[in-house]
Automatic annotation (TrEMBL):
Taxonomic superkingdom: Archaea
Annotated protein name in UniProt: DUF2721 domain-containing protein
Transmembrane segments: 30-51, 108-130, 136-158
Organism in which the protein naturally occurs: Methanofollis aquaemaris
InterPro entries: DUF2721 (IPR021279)
Key words of the record: Membrane, Transmembrane, Transmembrane helix
Amino acid sequence: MPPLHQDIFSMLSYSKPNENLEDPVTSADIIQTMLAPGLMISACGLLLLGMSNKYSVVLNRIRVLDEEKRIHLHDAPGRQEDDDPRLSCVLEQLSELRTRAQFERDAIVCYSASVAFFVLTSIFIGLSVLGGIEALGLLTIASFLVGMLLVLAGVLFVGWEAVKGYRIICLDMQNN
């Protein structure tokens, strides 16, 4: 069995007569095919950046409200939620923010997983072209579609998170 580096070089120089990598049409097709997952990786990176920022802001808001709750409860140990409208509002906001943070977390997980599937898609494309493994075609399409479905799921979580964020602002405005 030849050393691994010789196998890799033989794969790189491998081409069938009808699949010559020097053919401009074939090379352009390969480059174009490999661009789609790359563009999706970049798009998901931007979505992740935005969601990570929102997630951080919501977690910080939870910490601030939780501290406010502790101060309210510490000042009057026997105080009930019904006795203090601000404490009631804080508790309600904390509950809503917890759900909002879960939606944001789920969106981040979906976007991160979609990046992994788009990277797999690029790897499968490279292996099928350079390695001549035609059986990877279905796997390539499947990994790309799973990545797209994960992006869709992430977008749905972001939509639910936006609705939840609006409800939290309405709660805060009602009590002021």
